[in-house]
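INFO worker-7 received task bundle
INFO bundle size: 2
INFO processing item 0
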Amino acid sequence: MIRVLLVDDDALVRAGLRMILGGAPDIEVVGEATDGAAGLDIARDCKPDVVLMDIRMPVMDGINATATLRAADDAPHVIVLTTFDADDLVVQALRAGAGGFLLKDSRPERLVGAVKAVCEGEPVLSPSVTRQLVDRVTASTPDNPANAARLERLTDREHEVAVLISRGLSNADIAADLYMSVPTVKAHVSRILAKLDAGNRVQAAIMVHEASR
């Protein structure tokens, strides 16, 4: 079972998410919170695998809550929820460690699929949105020589995989492009994230783009 925590100050949104996720046989909603601070407390108690996190909330917003969650040992995956496609707050949340984002009006099957995908290390972003977000971040960020140094830690094959990650490709797409099995790609992705000290694929993509400018 995939354990999910809902963090949103809108009771109707939480009810809708609970109803949708409750229909999936392998997903269990283990808690709800109305703000980021309460979400942190509940997460410590219920140990979710995935947190669906609203960005705009009272007391503590989703960006600070995401950063705190992702800094912890055995951190849960975080998917940020928003009503705006790739706005500045989404960019901040992804840099804080969120594994992707979903629009609140996403179709039910997209929501369920995203929860499962993020647990498998897959991006919860389309390739076009990934490129849009990465371009926005790198355009406003000064060059960071440390990123180039981190990329030098990668083997040639890992570098090839990292470049495809930066283009927003899924593990299956990378496997097809490089004629590898999906489990092999997953292993490469795990090593890449560790060597780059990146919390997720989006952070790795940002490093690749900054290093190649």
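INFO item 0 finished
INFO processing item 1
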Amino acid sequence: MQTTRKFIGKDLLGFGLLLVFLILFLISDQLNENEQLNNISADWINVNTIFLSIVLEAVPFILLGVFVSSLIQIYVSEETIQRFLPKNAIAALFPAAMLGAILPFCECAIVPVVRRLIKKGMPLHVGVVFLVAAPILNPIVFASTFYAFRSEPTNTILYSRMGLAFVLAIIIGAILYGFFKNNAQQLRGDTHGHIHVHEHSHNKTGFFARIKQTFYHAVDEFFLMGKYLIMGAFIAALFQTFLDRSVLTAIGSNDYSSTIVMMVFAYLLSLCSEADAFVASSFGSQFTDMSIVAFLVYGPMLDLKNTFMLFAFFKARFVIIFMITVTIVVFTAVLVLFGLIL
């Protein structure tokens, strides 16, 4: 009974947050145009605008992610995953990075997919490689980065971003393997009650039964992820509005400080990886190339909104070690790439 109330409470929270989003979406024009709303600060109207833009940008990729996750749940067996993965733990890292170069997932959509793959038997460290590689290496991000920096004749930033993402994904996966081996127990238990409601029908193999199951899982995971996306987007909107960007610009000319600042900026802004290159290119005259590359590599691997999702789906110890590893590895690698350390 207590468990049922817990699930109902989470459902109500999810529906409530989505309702708030819909209300803000519907009245956003009135907030921007109505001069009689003098009690509402222009900054808070800007928070609303940024919040809506982040959510609207992410929702299509969330939907893509939950449907792929559901298809994996229904159609991919544990035996299939085990058969196609190399037995050697280190050798398995390379196919995961290559897979990330094919599938168009952003950092929002990739979390449920990786969670589902691990539950299906994919080793934890291989899932980590896919988690950090797919949001950067996919063809959509390659095209958007190329277009955003098309005025750069050597394409240094584009190739630095893609090359670092591939190499660092493997390194991060190897480090996490050293901490956790293949321990899938780092996943939290099912955090949504509806999944259990539909398990009775998983033995049905008919086409329509499978379609029904796919939509059940997609709806469950969409509402589960939606509330974390909305919370993360709101916090990110607050930072985007109230951070003094002039302070950031003042320290942007120093290689070390600008790299740290741009990594923090990437984390707080929580931009979708398909769009972040256009924001990064706007800082080209104020920040160093090294710091911009750090922004483009670090943000898709780790940002504020996918941190919420990671804590929702993985145990805290894993998430903390993952965050520390990604931060240190990206910062060190960028310094090495641009020749500041050997």
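INFO item 1 finished
INFO post-check item 1: The CA atoms of residues 333 and 339 lie 10 Å apart.
INFO post-check item 1: Residues 191-203 have pLDDT under 50 and may be disordered.
INFO worker-7 idle
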